[in-house]
Amino acid sequence: MKYRKLLILLLVMSLWGGTMIFADSAAQKVRVIVNGSELDDAGILSDGKTYLSVRQLASTLQSIVFWDENAKKVTVYKPNVHMFLFQDNTIFGNVVKGNRISFKVFAQIDNLMTDISAVKVSIMNPGGAETLIQSKNVSVKDYFWYRTDDITYSFDSAGKYSILFYMKLTGTDDWKLVSEKTITAKTQ
């Protein structure tokens, strides 16, 4: 009786192990690198085709993903968002660490192929703390310009500060990051 149970267990384990080896050889993980950053578990190679996580890839590319459950369809929107930073009437991108400056963000948005209900702009310091610069409800499609009011901000740490531009799709509460601009705070 013991040998019979042991034989059945050995047979089950052999079949399971063989199935796992076959499954691993049929679908292999693929490293996906976007702009020098590797995505976590992003790709699988199966039958000579590479499959990628749309949501993870779109997030890395700062795109908007829309899933239509009824049509079983994924749509990816990538609006062009060009941001310029102005201190008075001068464009800037670098600051001296410790300076407190007033600036505004100007954004040109085009190729917007979906309806949005709001935009917001924030700044993230090198430590990861995010501060809202301004948000606004909008009802536009295709292209528009957006300018924030002046914000006074202290660049207390050396490093990279990110200006983040978000959009909210009509009918959702989720903010989607669609563009990023970097300000470098340097020591003198």
UniProtKB/TrEMBL annotation:
Copper amine oxidase-like N-terminal domain: residues covered: 34-112
InterPro entries recorded: Cu_amine_oxidase-like_N, Mao_N_sf
Name recorded for this polypeptide: Stalk domain-containing protein
Species name: Paenibacillus solisilvae
